[in-house]
Design a protein that fits this description.
Helices cover 41% and strands 17% of the residues. By secondary structure, the chain is of the alpha/beta class. The protein folds into two domains: 3-190, inorganic pyrophosphatase (n-terminal core); 195-315, Roll (Diaminopimelate Epimerase, Chain A, domain 1), CATH 3.10.310. Strand 10 and strand 11 (287-292) form a beta hairpin. Helix 2 (25-41) runs parallel beside helix 4, helix 2 packs antiparallel against helix 5 (142-155) and helix 5 packs antiparallel against helix 6. The protein starts with a helix and ends with a helix. It binds manganese (II) ion. Manganese (II) ion (MN) binds next to loops.
């Protein structure tokens, strides 16, 4: 499955692994894990990870590399956990020498720059890279195993959203066998603080409902400042509004300080990815996102109407 990508890796002494905008545990874990995998196969290659990563885990996993433009322009780029070049956080990806992609998001067929492996049935990109390590017979380092476990557990919401349990647990076993520090990861993942607790209280008591039964919450930047919450942190809390009986779609709109708006949509009923695509976003069938240029209530209203229609059709 990964032959073409491995062939390309063989040709380059310098490789930069790129993750998406608003990096999460899967994107960061895949970057670190893939680097460990490549180093296990080719100890002399220079492999860099770029972007902001997840600083929360820097006490047990590596921080990100600072890479000069000269390195970028002489390297193979590998995109992980994202569809396409413009989705990557470090926009210098356009200046690389060659490209390859490993991802589990629904393919929009925009990536034509090189070989790619896309598995939309995989729960996480980390799960795919674990499969890659097993397929290639690689003994991944404990650090790589810990990083890959991070994405495996976060993107599946602690093994709740899994398409193939037998395969996922087989891969998780490989990571445990290779020294993944699961206890320490669990401790970091479970930690919260009082500010987050009060923000959660606000979210769970201030959501709204459309006529059609879609649950939503809109955070202006003023509201976020009052809550002492970043737009990303608010967006990452979208599942607080999930799984409420009778409301299969829930979503949030959070305004960044620069005026852009992050949209997150989730569903345990109809597929909502097409609605995200219609406003320039994308993702998974039941978990998608998008970004709006500004907090335009007309546009938000259109998205909510689109979701209402999707829900109505599904209920028929
Ligand atoms: Mn992912």
């Amino acid at each position: 499955m990964f032959e073409q990508i491995v062939e390309l890796i063989e040709k380059y002494d310098s490789i930069v692994i790129f993750g998406h905008i608003n990096p999460d545990g899967d994107c960061y874990g895949a970057q670190v894990g893939l680097r460990e995998l490549i180093h296990a196969l080719y100890p002399n290659k220079k492999v860099y990870i770029t972007g902001t990563g997840c600083p929360r885990f820097f006490s047990i996993l590596p921080s990100m590399d600072k890479i000069g433009d000269d390195i970028i322009s002489n390297s193979l780029a590998i995109l992980v956990d994202g569809n396409d070049l413009p989705r990557m956080e470090d926009s210098r990806i356009f200046n690389c020498k060659a490209w390859a992609k490993i991802d589990h998001h629904i393919d929009t067929l925009m990536f034509t720059e090189g070989p790619q492996v896309v598995d939309t049935a995989a729960n996480s990109t980390c799960d795919m890279i674990t499969g890659m390590a097993m397929e290639l017979g690689v003994d991944i380092s404990p650090l790589g195993a810990t990083a890959l476990y991070l994405g495996t557990v976060t993107d599946s919401a602690k093994f709740q959203f899994v398409t193939n349990y037998s395969q996922t647990f087989e891969r998780a076993k490989y990571l445990a066998d290779h020294g993944a520090n699961i206890e320490l990861l669990n401790t970091i993942l479970a930690k919260t603080d009082e500010r987050s607790v009060s923000a959660r209280g606000y979210i769970m008591t201030h959501y709204k409902k459309t006529k059609g039964g879609v649950i939503y919450i809109i955070y202006s930047k003023e509201k976020l400042h009052r809550l002492k919450l970043s737009a990303n942190a608010a967006s990452n809390n979208v599942n607080l509004l999930g799984n409420i009986e009778g409301y299969p779609i829930w979503c949030s709109f959070a305004e960044y300080d620069d005026g852009r708006v992050r949209v997150e949509i989730r569903s345990n009923g109809p597929e909502i990815q097409p609605c995200a695509v219609r406003v320039g976003g994308g993702g998974h069938a039941h978990a998608s996102g998008a970004q709006l240029k500004s907090l335009d209530y007309g546009v938000i209203d259109d998205i909510l109407k689109d979701l209402d229609n999707t829900l109505a059709e599904w209920r028929e």
